[in-house]
Amino acid sequence: MSTLLRAAPAPRTTALAPGRSRGRTLRSSAATALIWLAFAIALVPLVWIMWTVLSRGLPSMLHLTWWNKDQSGVGPAGFDHQVRGARHAIVGTLLMAALTSLIAVPIAILTAIYLVEYGRGRIARIVSFMVDILSGVPSIVAALFIYAVWVTTFKLTLVPACASLALVLLMIPVVTRSAEEMLRLVPNELREAAYALGVPKWKTILRVVLPSCMSGIVTGGLLGFARVAGETAPLLLVASYTQFLNQNMFSGSMAALPTLINTNVQFMSSDPISADRVWGAACTLIVLVLAINLAGRLLGHLTRVKS
Question: Which residues belong to the signal peptide in this entry (predicted)?
Answer without folding.
Answer: none
